[in-house]
Amino acid sequence: MKELKVRLLVIIPAFNEEAAIGGVVASVRRHAPEADIVVVNDGSADATADVAGRAGATVLSHLYNMGIGATMQTGYKYAGRYGYDVAVQVDGDGQHPAESIRFLVETLIKGRADLVVGSRFLGEGDYKPSLARSTGMAIFSRVVSAVIKVKVTDTTSGFRAAGKRCIDFFSSRYPDDYPEVESLVLLHKKGFSIM
Q: Tens digit of pLDDT for each residue in 140-166?
């Protein structure tokens, strides 16, 4: 496996994910061994932080649950402070295939985009949202795709690769209401390219 020539951080936001987080960290280690891993524990009431630490991740813990927006901003602040070139978000519940991290990062470093969003609806996979969630996701996808003029099939995806400019931007500003969706619109307004 060819090593990626960037300083790579995988940010794993987690809230009460003790059952899955160890496997997620192990899978990232296996498929992206050159990556550093930080789990941002968002005030979990279970053993998420302990399990993640034992699995070999650096763990940053919020004292109480602050939501995905604040959790990701914590991860981006860490990435910026320690000079990472690329930060990849991988959700702590195990729904994202760690073997696809390289694909996201390679696409990003080839200069094709400032942010690459992985989709649960392209290619293989077994993600099946509820009807209500599926309907909401479809509406978000149409609206955001029209606004940013790029087809995005999974606007709520928590599987993303961000380059240095995005890391710097998200370190100082990351939305918290509908963060995955809002972040795409914010980046577009600021002239970032999204794929």
A: 666 556 666 666 666 667 899 999 999
Express each pLDDT in 83-121 by its tens digit.
999 999 999 998 888 999 999 999 999 877 899 988 654
Residue-by-residue DSSP string for the chain:
-PPPSS-EEEEEEESS-HHHHHHHHHHHHHH-TT-EEEEEEES-SSSHHHHHHHTT-EEEEESS---HHHHHHHHHHHHHHTT-SEEEE--TTS-S-GGGHHHHHHHIIIII-SEEE--TTSSS------HHHHHHHHHHHHHHHHHHTS--S-TT-S-EEEEHHHHHHHHH---SSSHHHHHHHHHHHTT--B-
Q: Which residues contact 188 (CB under 8 A, 6 or more apart)?
A: 147, 148, 149, 150, 194
